[in-house]
Amino acid sequence: MNAPTRILDTMTELHRFLFCSAHAGHGQWLSAALREEGVVLQEAGRPAQLQQRIGDLDPQVVLLDFSGESTGHADEPPDAGIAQATELAQMLKRVAPKLPLVAVGSMVRADGMKAALRAGVHDFIDMHSTHEEALEVVRRVIDHTPPAAPGAAPQRHGRFVVLLGARIGVGCSTLAAHLSQLGQELSVGAHPERAERAAKAKPGANKDDKFDASLLGHVALLDLGLPAGDGLLYLNTQSQFSFAEAVQNLRRFDETLVHTAVSHAPSGLAVLPLPLDLGDMRSVAAADALALTDRLRAFFNLIVADLGGFSNPAFVASLVRAADEVWLVVDQSVGAIVSLASMLRDLEEKSVERNHLHLVLNRYDPRYGMAADQIAKRFDVPLLATLPDRPLTMLSATNQGKLIIDTARGDPYVRALQPLVERLLSAQHAGAASQRQSSGWLGRFMGKH
C-alpha cells in the first residue's frame, strides 16, 4: 500500500497513460481504445512544462503525438507537432530513460513515422487501426517493461464506480452512502461490536483508545454530489480534508496521508468530500482528478464516486470514462426521465460508450407508472437494479443520524442493495489477463516503405 512505483504488475494495476498532444479528438480516440487497460491523461505544452507534469502524474507509459496534424492555430508552423514530440522524446530519454514511450500517428504519413523511429520510441499506435490493435500495442509495451524492484509492496487494484444522478433529488447521494457503508462492512466482516469499538476512538474519545486499523483501507466514498456534504451528513461524519486538497497533495498521497488526513466513518469507511468553498474545485484539473482516483485504487478495494448534480460536464465525463462501472440513478418522475435523456446526450457528445452504463431505478414502485424494463428499453441502457421506495424508514434513520443499514438491517432497501455490493466486491477480486503475443511496429513500417 505504498505510493505507486513506475511500473506495477499489469495483472492488478490500472495504468496511467499520459498523452502529450493538443488534439482533443486524438485524446478521445485513445481514451476509448485504451480504457480496458488504463486511464489516458492528456496534457499539452512545451517539454519543460510537461516534464513537471510527468513527475506529478507518474504515468506508466507516455504517448507522443507524431501525427503531424495541425491544431488549427494560425501561427503554428508546419510540422510543429512532430518537432515538439521529437523534442519531448529526447528530453524523456535523458531524464526518465526507463519510461516507455509510444508514438501515436498514421502509418501513411512517412515523416511522422520516421521522426518517431529516430526519436527511439518503443512502439507505434496507428490511429487508423482498430481500438483492439491500439490496446494490443500498449499491452505489448507494458509486458516488455522491467517490473518494479524486488521487495516492492504489492498494489491493489480497487474497483472504481461512478454514480450519476439524473438530476438533484433522485437519491444518488443516499445510494452512494449506503453502497459505500455496506461495501465497507462486507469487506471487513464488520460487526456491531467492532463498529462501536472503532467509534470510541474518534476525536473526543478517551486518548488511550486506538482506532481499529483493521477497519481501514477497504472502501472510499468520493462525496462530490450536490447538495454538497450530503454523504458526510448521512454517515454522521465530519471532514477537514477535501477532494480538492487531496488533489493538491497528490505527490505526497501515501498510506500515511490516507490514515491521518482523510476522514473515516466509525466503520472505517474513508470519505473525501467537496471543499467548503466550492470555488476551490475550479483549480482541480480533470487530469489531476483522474490521477487521484487512480492513486486511490492502490489503497482501497472499492471507490464509489457520487457525482449526482455535479455541474462540470467535462469533469464528469473524464471520471466516467475512467470508471469500471457507471450507474445512472433515476426515479420514475417525469423530470428525472427527461433529465436522463439529456444526460445521455451529454455523455455521448463526450465519447462515453452506452455499453459502459447501467441503470439503477431508485424509489421504485410499480404503482407509480412506467415499469423499470420499459424505462431501460426506452433509453437502451441495461437495467442493473430497482431499489424500493422506503420514505418512512429512510427518514426515520436519517433523523437519528444513521443509515437504514443501522436501524433496519432486514429492510427491503438493504436486501435489494446487498447483491449489488457483493457483485462489486467479487468483480474486484476477479481479474485475469490473457497471454499477449508481440509483433514489432518497426517491421510493419518497413513493410510499407
UniProtKB/TrEMBL annotation:
Protein name in the entry: Response regulatory domain-containing protein
Annotated InterPro entries: CheY-like_superfamily (IPR011006), P-loop_NTPase (IPR027417), ParA/MinD_ATPase (IPR050625), Sig_transdc_resp-reg_receiver (IPR001789)
GO cellular component, one term: cytosol
Biological-process GO terms, alphabetical: negative regulation of cell division; phosphorelay signal transduction system
Modified residues (4-aspartylphosphate): D65
Residue intervals of the Response regulatory domain: 16-142
Molecular function per GO: ATP binding; ATP hydrolysis activity
Keywords: Phosphoprotein
Domain of life: Bacteria
Lineage summary: Bacteria, Pseudomonadati, Pseudomonadota, Betaproteobacteria, Burkholderiales
Organism annotation: Pandoraea faecigallinarum
Stored SUPFAM superfamilies: CheY-like (SSF52172), P-loop containing nucleoside triphosphate hydrolases (SSF52540)
